[in-house]
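Suppose you are handed a protein chain with no further information: no name, no annotation, nothing but its sequence. What can you learn? This example shows the usual starting point.
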Amino acid sequence: MSEAGSNTALQGIKIGNVNFDKLPVVLAPMEDITDPPFRIICRELGADWVYTEFISADGLIRDAGKSLQKLDVYPEERPVSIQIFGANPEAMEEAARRAEDAGPEFIDINFGCPVRKVASKGAGSGIMNDIPKMAEITRRVVRAVNIPVTVKTRLGYDKSTKNIVDIAEKLQDCGIAAIAIHGRTRCQLYRGTADWTLIGEVKNNPRMHIPVIGNGDIKDGPSAFSAFEKYGVDGIMIGRAATGNPWIFKEIRHYLKTGSIIPPPGLKEKIALCRRHIRMSAQWKGEHIAVFEMRKHYSSYFSGIPNFKPFRIRLVTAPSLPELEQVLDEIENVFS
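A reasonable first move is to predict its three-dimensional structure. Written in structure tokens, the prediction is:
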């Protein structure tokens, strides 16, 4: 498959005033995962475009501290989307203005989060039961800001309402600049296999003229290449497969260009990046929160190491940064 790059990766797209000289491989928004330190690391390793964690519109307009902190954007991570969610059109409009003031390249509307505490309030993918309101929020956000607005959503609310082809047309008519589609319904959450056929139908709909980004079950170079080749999408989005594995962007980029799989990083490289990740996180969000939230990354950072379970337990129970550093030192001494 040495011809992989000739068919896909050498092409490019444009969203607003941002030119991508190749089809973008994008870091998906994930709560407590895609903070600035992780976004910067992913950009360094080949992500073409990154998203913030999703930010509550109600939290932004109330000046809630956690919501405001999520607006932090750094030069090393650009281009970046600030993603907002909410069920109230007026709140979403005002939140979009505040997000624009933070200086991102794009504002993204979260119509895709399936978790109960969001969807049960009619936000995230919960709004897919109310398409007129979905369109109203989109129109108001687009009109409120002077930068491109994108949407991330799902195939539909449940298996009987996989109406994404119609929804995508309506959102495009509201003025969005691109759409990212996760290949599951809200009711599926993250269960089962992502269905890319409807994502392909959106892309191949002759009425669609905005970029279509596909999301769901992209885990390596071959699956990324397959998504581009089979469904013709304008970009792919990586979510859970990037957690603790920012090297996935480097792997995919290499595969799209050459058709070959690069060796995984060695243990010393993993430890060095994990250590840097922890320190950057502690500097940005404080040691206590960083130590807790980093626990989501360790299984992937150190996957495939025989007899590693005792060290993994120590990593996820260490209460402080110095103790984490000590465990990493021991891992390097024992397994290198």
